[in-house]
Write a structure and sequence with these properties.
Belongs to the LamB/PxpA family. This protein is α/β, with parallel strands linked by helices. The chain has eight helices and ten strands. The two termini are about 15 Å apart.
Length: about 250
């Protein structure tokens, strides 16, 4: 039987502004990527989401990013490796306080936005992220794109690696994500997202932007929490997976 973890980006608000419906999404997903204050999120939001996740038995992950609140962590930045490593560790440590207060812990790390895409190919930035994770906890799993420099270096450093896929993002023939700046980069048609989710979970394949079928072997599937109708779409995805015999559970 196929098995897949469902993760979503949560806690992406700041002060009175909220972007994601955290409480309802936490009733669907098995892992929560919690913003740690650098691209979104603040102390109150982090504490609230950790408490909700712990209450529902959802794994808490640190979603680390470049320090870019104004650009939501999606702007390209050049951060010195030593600084980036320290900031990654800092974000993990901040979230760990609230996770432990809720009776849980930070169970994994996932980069966000521009940092996520940068560490697919950039060895120096990927190594800095790995260093930051090791500073925080040398046993933390790292989520990332299959075949990325990040997962390669994390594995070499002894960190558990978890390859993930995106049902609502277009892929290139090389298995990388189509940049958001290009038309069609985000899949918005709900039925298409649901069927792509099933294909990724059951067969490890997805249709690229050119129409080619490419292999994307993933243990976790990301459902973006900031898309319109995210909660209902997440429910449809989970129901489709389970009705097709796919077991939905957090990665080991």
């Amino acid at each position: 039987m196929a098995c897949i973890d469902l993760n979503a980006d949560l806690g992406e608000g700041f002060g009175r502004w909220r972007l994601t419906d955290d409480e309802r999404l936490l009733s669907v997903v098995t892992s929560a990527n919690v913003a740690c204050g650098f691209h979104a999120g603040d102390a109150v939001t982090m504490r609230r989401v950790c408490a909700l996740a712990a209450e529902r038995g959802v794994r808490i992950g640190a979603q680390v990013s470049y320090r870019d609140l104004a650009g939501f962590g999606r702007r390209a930045m050049d951060v010195p490796p030593a600084e980036l490593a320290a900031e990654v560790a800092y974000q993990i440590g901040a979230l760990e306080v609230f996770a432990r207060a809720a009776g849980s812990r930070v169970a994994y790390v996932k980069p966000h936005g521009a940092l996520y895409n940068r560490v697919v190919h950039d060895e120096e930035q990927a190594a800095a992220v790995v260093e930051g994770v090791l500073l925080a906890d040398a046993a933390l799993p790292v989520l990332g794109l299959p075949g990325s420099r990040l997962l390669e270096l994390a594995g070499k450093a002894g960190l558990p690696v978890v390859p993930e896929a995106f049902a609502d993002r277009a892929y290139t023939d090389a298995g990388t994500l189509v940049p958001r700046s290009r038309e069609g980069a985000v899949i918005t048609e709900p039925d298409a997202v649901v069927e792509r989710s099933l294909a990724l979970a059951a067969s490890g394949e997805v249709v690229s932007e050119s129409g080619a079928r490419i292999a994307v072997r993933a243990r976790s599937l990301c459902l973006h929490g900031d898309t319109p109708g995210a909660v209902e779409l997440a429910r449809r995805v989970r129901e489709r997976l389970e009705s097709s015999g796919v077991r939905v559970e957090a990665f080991a």
